[in-house]
Amino acid sequence: MTQDADAYREAFVREARENLERMNAALLEAERSPGSLEPLREAIRAVHTLKGMAGMMRLEGVATLCHALEDALEAARRGELDVAAGADPLFEAFDRLADAVAAVERGAPEPELGPAVSALRAAVAGEPAPAPGPPAEQPIRPGRLEQLPVKVERLDRLMNLVEELLVAKMRFDPLRAALASPELSAAVDSLGRLVAELQYQVLRARMVPIGLVVGRFQRMVRDLAREQGKEVRLLQEGGDVELDRAMHDELAEALVHLLRNAIDHGIEKPAERVRRGKPPAGTIRVEAERSKDSAALIISDDGEGLDLEAIRRAGESRGLLQPGAGVTEVLAALLSGLSTRPRATAVSGRGLGLEIAASRLRDIGGSLSASSERGKATTFRLEVPLTLAILRSLLVEAGGGTYGLPLNSVARIVSVPESRVRRVLGREAVVIGAREVPLLRLGRLLRRPAAGPDRFPVVVLAAGERRLGLAVDALVSTQELVLKPLSRVLRESGPFAGSAIIGAGEAILVLDVAELLRAPGTLEAAACP
Amino acid sequence: MKTILVADDSMFMRTVVKDVLGGKYRIVEADSGKACLEQFERVHPDLVLLDVVMPEGEEEGLRALRHILESDPKARVVMLTALGKQETIVKECLRLGAKGCIVKPFEGGQVLKVVEECLA
Question: How far is CA A297 from its chain centroid?
Fold first, then answer.
């Protein structure tokens, strides 16, 4: 075993994880149904396989711990160990094995598993557990631990508590205004600063580098490419950009679709590439960028590019595109699920993947855009806010209610007299700057129209090149909102991204700007029969 | 070039074996006892390296061994098994007609030596 240590390591890590999953599932089953032998046999087989692999990798500790586990599971199978009552030491040992596999993946040396072996043997023999040592995989510096492994679940709980605290604190704001007491004011201010700092620190603790997301796909890219007889390299830049961990799962889903698309529709087969003067192996590049409050992933491939003409033809024939539509509209049609493929492949279906990816991203306040150069490259740009939880928002009033608008989509706010509103083909627009911007009256959209004054504020919303003027009755304030997801019913009832609690505990709806920008004409038409 | 059928449910293990033997032998792979039998009938390999414990348990490898030898009593099969209960298993395999047993973890040279001896 001298060749290509990295290839071995990758195969080992993947299979070791599969076996750990089997072990966990089987032991859970054994715990639930005492007396049933098959789950125990299944666990033994998985442990046995892992032991063999560990031996080949010269992971002595892992092999020894697996051996101890085999003994324990065999004892359980013979009825000498009651798994229903005492599975914890076994699960503990599984977790130590998982730590060791993670260390192998990082290229770190095998952690010390001696204590885990003794603990397991002692537990099986019915002895009290020895005092727990320090977590095995952490390098110990004299006197202090630099890092602690923390369960994500605990961080989530902490984050929820901070959100509750933030809401509780907001309830003091109207009290302070009503009571006008300097002491109360000072106390609320210092509480506010502390809560804000706490919130920031908890958010930071939840941040994880984007590289971890991308790293998970090396394997998938390789396997998919191989299935299709293609050669693909996945490169990554800027992997240390950090994101809230809740964002990770969302990103991972969108990435699956985009990577599959790149392999399926983008990268050509080696022979074809050579004919086009390209290297036989295609490259997919994932770059991460970060700005003040958003992060972007740029996924580009050096494949055959998008066939804009074919997309245009398909769009026109299905009535999704007007004849003569510009490149932007054509790409938008692609992102809303239009496909030119006559036949779906097993890999990425028929363009629906893109639509799902785009709509998931919109749900979390992100966006997806595309560009392409025929024959050379396709690039998708995927933008997400750094965190799902906190949204700096503009509060507005319309039709007697208060609504939130994410501040990062507000381009400007202008006051517009009714006389400057133009009406073209049943739609309204105003000229702001040198540009005609479609106008949407929020009160009317929400079916709560009010006879407005002859001058009203217009909030100009922007995303990419798109602009929309949102006419409201009044501006209230700007505030940090803690965004909570909506029930399905509410979500489908209008262009809402979520709800939030303000001031005295009043719940408001936060508008989904991407949805508003997508088709203002249609939305409004639907809203006023 | 002689053909070796490597039957092991672990891709990791197959990769290791392939690295050691590839170049000198044509390698055909199978990831279960059933696939092993199918490949055996299809390619008639000169030698089979067969893992004892596969997803359906110890019996899976032993069952495959029995079927292979029923189909071709002169078939050359070497078993692969992880350290542990090997003594009983080795005896059982040899009793059934396996030519040898390699215990995991093994060195590349060890596999090569056993394979060469078996094919000599």
Answer: 12
pLDDT at B45 over 80: yes
pLDDT at A526: 37
| Selected residue of B12, B52, B107 to mutate for chain A interface (largest A Cβ count, 10 A) | B12
Angle, alpha carbons A404-A405-A406 (nearest 5°): 120
- Closest CA–CA distance from residue B71 to any residue of chain A (Å): 28
User: Residue B14: enclosing H or E segment and its boundaries?
Assistant: helix B11-21
- Average pLDDT over chain A reads 78
> Is B105 in Cβ contact with A63 (below 8 Å)?
yes
Of B10, B53, B55, the CB nearest to A15: B10
Q: Is residue A26 less than 8 Å (CB to CB) from chain B?
A: no
**For the segment A492-519, what is each residue's pLDDT rounded down to a tens digit?**
777 887 777 776 567 788 888 877 887 5
pLDDT digits (tens, 9 = 90+) for A37-83: 888 988 998 998 898 888 888 898 999 999 999 999 988 888 888 88
> Residue B38 and residue B36: Cα distance in Å, rounded?
5
Rounded-to-integer distance, Cα A66 and Cα A19, Å:
11
- H or E stretch at A440: strand A435-441
Q: From the CB of residue A522, how many other CB atoms can be counted at a distance below 10 Å?
A: 9
Nearest chain A Cα distance for residue B36, angstroms: 18
DSSP A466-488: EEEEEE-SEEEEEEEEE-BPPPH
**Can you tell me the distance from the alpha carbon of A198 to that of A190, in angstroms, rounded to the nearest whole number?**
12
Strands A435-441 and A466-471 come out as: parallel
CA distance A50 to B10: 9
pTM for the complete prediction? Answer: 0.41
pLDDT of B16 above 90: no
ipTM above 0.85, yes or no: no
Sign for the pseudo-dihedral over CA of A142, A147, A150, A154: positive
CB nearest to B57's CB, from A45, A51, A67: A45
φ, ψ for residue A202, nearest 5 deg:
-65, -40
Report d(CA A32, CA A290) in Å as an integer: 47
Please list the ranges in chain A whose pLDDT falls under 50.
1-3, 132-143, 342-350, 521-529
Report yes or no: A187 and A181 within 8 Å, Cβ to Cβ: no
- pLDDT recorded at residue A145: 57
Q: How many CA atoms lie within 13 A of A263 on its CB side?
A: 27
Cβ B83–A63 below 8 Å, yes or no? yes
Residues of A in contact with B20 (CB under 8 A): 1
Of B16, B55, B82, the CB nearest to A1: B16
- Residue-level pLDDT at A459: 93
